[in-house]
Amino acid sequence: MSSKQTLREEAIRFRNSIDPFSEDVDLVVSEFFECLCPQAGQVVALYWPKGKEFDTGPLIEALLRNRVSCALPVMQKDSKELRFVRWDESIPLIAGPFGIMQPEINRDSVWVEPDIVVVPMLAFDRQGHRLGYGGGYYDATLAALRARKPVQAVAIGYSTQAVLFNLPSEPHDQKMDWVITPNRVQRHT
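Request: output the structure for the sequence above.
Response:
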């Protein structure tokens, strides 16, 4: 088993033990707005939380209240690159691959390219590296988006997901521009 896989298993076990009420998640919303200054007309791609992932719901609500377009990822057959569909509470969610909730696609769906991508994580280090689930979807997506336009990558999570050592990094791993937790903001650009 690789060291990354061992770290991933430990990070999942640890993350699943975190009490979601142990930290003030609303601080992430205020820090996100203060640091990234999202504007009406921009598109922020987020994820719909699964299991014990950090809850993006309060951030989505705040963005929509401020007329910032939100989008959720949709997995594509035979591709690691995620595509994004504009989303608000009027659009139903359905279970996609791996049980991840995604917008129901129909003829009215609006495909968008985000300006800011909020990325899920299991752990993060002081260098802006995150440990994900190992599928490589966000790395492939960020690489493709960054080749086309400037995009800010933001990992959000609990402060206790920080590690004191450098996470293993491979050439295809995409570094985060920001890591925001209720107790800490790290900028890496």
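The mean pLDDT is 94.
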